[in-house]
Amino acid sequence: MNRPYDDGNKYESLRERIIGLGEHSIRKSYYPELQERLAELEKFRSLLDQSNDAIFLVQIPSGILMDVNESACSQLGYKKEDLLNRPMGNITDDGRIETFLGNGKILQGERQTLNIIMKKSNGHDLPVEMTVRIVNFNNIVYAVIVARDITERIKAEEEKKKLQSQILHAQKLESLGILAGGIAHDFNNILAGILGHIDLALTDPSVGPNLRNRLEQIRNSSIRASELTRQMLAYAGLGKFSIQPVNLSTLAEDTAKLMELSISKKHILKYNFQEKLPLFYGDMTHLRQVITNLIINASEAIGEKDGIIKISTGTMKCDASYLAETYLHENLSAGLYIYLEVTDTGCGIPKENQDKIFDPFFTTKFTGRGLGLAAVLGIIRYHKGTIKIKSEPDIGTTIKLLFPAFSLITEEKEKNEISLRQWKGTILIVDDEECICIVTKAILEELGFTTITAGNGREGVELFKKHDKEICAIILDITMPKMSGIDALKEIRLINNKVKIILTSGYEGKAAFKDYIDENTDEFLQKPFEIKELIEMFEKILPQAFRNDS
Question: How many CB atoms lie within 10 A of CB 452?
Fold first, then answer.
């Protein structure tokens, strides 16, 4: 069989024939030309073996491998003799190659590039970018195939796609958080007016028992509505948190034992709590809500059949690659994490739904829609933690919550005892919601204060300029038209940096506005607020001189 060169001894035979032809030729003038060809052949062979790419010489149309370089043997795990004189189809079953080689799809001198999978000697795949060129040597057609390993390129592309997906997911969460926070803010403004008027009505001694009962029912319904807004704010990461050292094992055990009475008798709770678990700073109320939601969801996943819910705590070291596979992986550092794990033997979650279960109002259940797991997400995000999910249909689900072992979340101040004493002095109320101004004014006057009201920040600043000397405190809404509460705060501080200010918002938590609120701001009051909460604020910020019993 004719071929441009061969390996080993055969290559040396070819060399001798070429040299011999030159030495015994009658026309010695051919010798320099043959010598030059020989040098090119040797140079070509050297370049082939030095290349990092796998190179194959294939006869057309048979598809037989005539030569391969050392890189091809190394990458595929074959010896050269195992490849030569064998079909190209032995190392790739991609039909496109056979089409090119067998049907002359590529013209001489042209190139064709495609991505295919080659088979290693151990059966593993080798993804390559293959370039095919047709050449003619001594009237025999060959294909020169250069195959470049693209394993790392594929990994990089997959990582890019994954990163893009994570970015889109983060943007979705952010958008939903903004939407949830905005809706909660508006609802809280409405509820503030409702609860304020109800509280005032309930203080009226002329209200009869029947009317009082109905007012109490309205009040209870309003409080339940405010709890829903709190869940929405928790999802948005704007919830009101009271931070303290938490032992996750103790909290999980106490919560789970209470839940034993709330779930089906067919479902057995099993515990595996690590002793001497490191403490971390967290909000016990919100974390208890998280544990409760996870147990309820696990029980609902099991349904009417017998099943087991296992609750475990412990510690583990998490590296960057592990954290990258979690639900909330942004800005997490490798290190020691405390975990809570809830495993059930329920129906499992289909893979296509696993990224959706923390979306607000997403459910696969026929009844009930809510913010349970969405609120869980917001609470975990606030605690600088993350979530890892493992689920298989008809086998069960494991949800693992991870918290940094050493949290730097700032602890909030504890509340003082509530006093119901009467007050004196003038309060400036600045809020763009008319109903809130009316009800707050009524509450304050019931407590003995004199009030001045403003419908926006600009009007509030102007009124404060006129009544600076008589105003003892300001109740200032943060979100308003014309001039926001933040901007009004700044201008008021230029006039008088000692006046007591209570910021209010339908958004929850002073921490949400930490970048805007200065150190002289005294308190934050969450809408909707009750009379007792308002009195509590005045107990903290107003001196004895403003109390009627002084």
Answer: 18
Residue 101 confidence (pLDDT): 65
Confidence check: pLDDT of 18 > 60: no
Q: Are residues 74 and 100 in the same domain?
A: yes
Return d(Cα 343, Cα 225) in angstroms, integer.
31
Query: What's the first-to-final CA gap in the chain, in angstroms?
Result: 116
* E strand or H helix at 33: helix 31-50
Residues 503 and 441 in one domain: yes
Quote helix, strand, coil % in the chain, to nearest 5: 45, 25, 35
- Higher pLDDT: 370 or 163? It is 163
Residue 543: predicted pLDDT: 81
The CB density around residue 220, as the number of other CB atoms within 10 Å, is 11
Radius of gyration of the chain (CA): 38
Q: Which of 113, 143, 142 is nearest to 128 (CA)?
A: 113
- Angle between helix axes 8-23 and 31-50 (nearest 10 degrees) is 160
pLDDT tens digit sequence for 321-334: 888 888 776 668 88
Question: Token pair of 34, please?
Answer: 């043959």
- pLDDT of 484 > 80? The answer is yes
Tokens matching residue 57 = 């010489």
Distances (CA, A) of 435 to 196, 447, 531: 10, 19, 16
Three-state secondary-structure class, residue 306: coil
Q: Are 472 and 426 in contact (CB under 8 A)?
A: yes
Q: How far apart are CA 475 and CA 23, in angstroms?
A: 109
The CA-based diameter of the chain, rounded to the nearest angstrom, is 136
Residues in a beta bridge with 114: 130
Query: Which candidate, 500, 484, 505, places its Cα nearest to that of 539?
Result: 500
Whether pLDDT at 67 is above 80: yes
Element (H or E) spanning 501, and its range?
strand 500-505
Tell whether 417 is covered by a domain.
no
Range of the domain at 137: 8-153
Same domain, 396 and 251: yes
| Amino acid 269: pLDDT | 92
Mean per-residue pLDDT of the chain: 75
With CA atoms as reference, report the closest residue to 365 among 297, 311, 417. Answer: 297
In a domain, 171, yes or no: yes
Structural domains of the chain, count:
4
